[in-house]
Design brief:
Elements: H1 4-9, H2 12-18, H3 22-33, E1 35-36, H4 51-67, H5 73-84, H6 99-116, E2 121-123, E3 126-127, E4 136-137, E5 140-142, E6 145-149, H7 158-173, E7 182-187, E8 192-197, H8 198-205, H9 210-229
Parallel strand pairs: 6-7
Antiparallel strand pairs: 1-8, 2-5, 3-4, 5-6, 7-8
């Protein structure tokens, strides 16, 4: 079985065939289609080996603040560390929740809270697997919008777009358990936001209509399953 992350970062021949304009489109996003809505958070004290841990704890703090009003960073830390333990090369053994890290975590969380407060949020929307792909979950679903949070110290990447396309395809293949009409990718660390109608996204990266692209993704994942079984 594979994850949506491994599928979005690999399988280049499939993505090149069915999303041939994706690279150019992401370049345009980073050159100006995306909006800068905040200044970047300077992270010279944020060790790169611990960045994903801090990002995960910040998301847990955001979720807890929204769902239960719990703004206790120690609770978010305990939850985040449990999640990160499932990551390969997680660097937990060298991690310590320092005052500097608490400052960064709090700022990322506050940016998420300020953007999404007063909205009806579904955290960790679930998507059924298909073929060789296991079931997976996104970050946030708000009304008709699928939101993916990327808090690295970088611009948006082709794998980010592939990942949200994969979620949308899985949703469509499972008879649209969610009504996804729009896509949003937000990087609170960099303060950049990109949003689009789902249909416009597919039109920008693929020669296929939305339904046909999603069907090809399903067929490909199912075909991989058959190959593995043989």
């Amino acid at each position: 079985m594979i994850s949506e992350v491994s599928f979005s970062r690999g399988y280049g021949s499939f993505w090149s065939e069915y999303t041939p304009w994706l690279g150019d489109f992401v370049s345009e996003i980073n050159k100006g289609i995306a909006s800068r809505i905040q200044n970047p958070i300077f992270s010279h004290i944020d060790d790169t080996t611990h960045r994903s841990i801090n990002n995960t704890i910040a998301f847990c703090l955001f979720k807890n603040s929204i769902t239960t009003g719990n703004k206790n960073i120690r609770d978010a830390y305990n939850e985040g560390i449990t999640i990160v333990r499932n990551y390969p090369k997680n660097n937990i053994t060298s991690y310590s929740l320092s005052d500097e890290y608490i400052e960064i975590i709090t700022e990322i969380s506050n940016r998420l809270i300020n953007r999404y407060k007063n909205k009806t949020i579904e955290f960790y929307p679930q998507f059924l697997g298909c073929g060789i792909m296991e079931s997976c979950q996104g970050d946030i679903y708000i009304e008709n919008t699928l939101v993916e949070i990327k808090a690295g110290e970088r611009g948006f990447q082709t794998s980010d777009i592939k990942q949200v396309i994969t979620y949308c395809a899985l949703n469509w293949l499972s008879e649209k358990s969610l009504n996804i009409e729009r896509i949003e990718i937000y990087n609170p660390r960099q303060g950049i936001l990109w949003e689009s109608d789902l249909s416009d996204l597919v039109l920008s990266v693929s020669s296929l209509p939305l339904e046909d692209l999603f069907e090809q993704i399903g067929n490909y994942l199912s075909g991989l399953s058959e190959i593995v079984e043989l």
